[in-house]
Model the fold of this input.
Amino acid sequence: MEKIKEIKLEELNPEEFISNEVEKITSKVGDDLAVNALSGGVDSSAVTMLVHKTLGNKLLTCFIDNGLMREGEPEYIVSLFKNLGVNVKLIDAKDKFFNALKDLTDPEEKREAITQTFYKDVFSQYVKETNAKYLFQGTNYTDVEETIAGVKRQHNILEQLGIDTEKEFGYIVIEPIIQLRKTGVRTIAKALGLPEEIYNRPPFPGPALAARIIDEVTPERIKIVKKATKIVEEELSNTKAFQYLAILHKDKVTGVRNNKRDFGLQIEVRCWESKDALIGTPTRVPYDILEKLAERITNEVLGVVSVTYNITKKPPSTIEAI
Ligand code: XMP
Done:
């Protein structure tokens, strides 16, 4: 495996980086077709814009609706990019992902199921249908580092784990932002003309809300975490924290509603201060906001009787729960 060299923020000249990448992409792809999946995160958005500007309609972009995204997210991202002149095909793959996740409880097995469904099933089919030879993806330097260090397997790491994508999946993967960390990617995204709501978006994990469900991921449990996530994002966006999230626990606890025992669900809220997600500190969220979160989540998310706020640093915690 070729060693990847990080481009540090202070060494990054966005215009130079973009023009170098445009040149590299043009010479690699030639007259062939390429595909990419947009998720709406900074990384895949930057790659979509960079490659769209380079290859025009030789790049076919899709948004894979895996059923694990936040409420309204697929439609929001497809329409935002449409306004930027990029056509994005929405692929409904919800059933495939839920079937692959059925009965799985182990975090790494869940990640593996998502990876396999994404690359081997949905993407391979898209590549076959479109006759594309290349797949562009927004792997960044931190993804590589954390996977190699064995902290967590990031869903988009393939080659670094010895996976030959051409042999296994039928396409060649190109990763134009692999030398950059998140802040570098944000700089490039801005220089590419993406709006602030994209280049300043809090990070969101590749396995999406499945990274925030302890135990089995089912459509019903996704619905619960989706609702809690919406509330957490509404209430915590003003904190300008690095990332904030809601986690659905496996264990139930005894609660009381209308003077009756209610054995219900637990939601854990996390809110992080961090620069690059490698280390993190919980935000000192004002107590009245925490109280409002507890009130809203227990009132608006059916079945939840307990809301906690996590006060652990990373390390030893990680940002997500699985
Ligand atoms: P952790 O949980 O490892 O997260 O402290 C570090 C950062 O990476 C995001 N994250 C992921 N992103 N695939 C991704 O693309 C993943 O499997 C994954 N797991 C975590 C997380 O949201 C945080 O910003």
User: Anything to note?
Assistant: Residues 111, 146, 151-152, 154-155, 203, 205-207, 211, 243, 277, 314, 318-320 surround xanthosine-5'-monophosphate (CB under 6 Å).
